[in-house]
Amino acid sequence: MQLNHNRPKLSDTKTCAKCGRDLHETYPHDLCPACMEFELFNAVKEYIRSNDDVHEQDVAEEFDIPISKVRGWIREGRIQYKGDNSDKLSSVVCKMCGKKIAFGTLCPQCHSLQQLQVVSNFKKQAETAGEMHFLNKKEQ
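The chain above was modelled as a monomer; its predicted structure follows.
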């Protein structure tokens, strides 16, 4: 078994200033990628909170990030604009009805309908729970 002598020694590495994760000495930043993303996200949230009339284009330009990243955070439900600014969001729409939304992937009406359908399916499953089922038998 041959040892890799080119591998950096612990003294050749630096650590993330926030979480302490080891970073290679040639890594150009003081924060690891995960902590940089966390810091960016918090800065975006604070920017949205402190500015009344912003939309995703403003955020993307202010932080020099792709607009797709901002829209992704909206779809994930991680950020939401103040008040009802959904009319300013050009491409974030409900995936069921297509209505413009400011948060998540569904508008409030479709979200409610989806929850009702889940409850209905659960009740149907509970009603048939006592019935006998057979493997490889097609439903008629």
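The CA atoms of residues 9 and 38 lie 28 Å apart.
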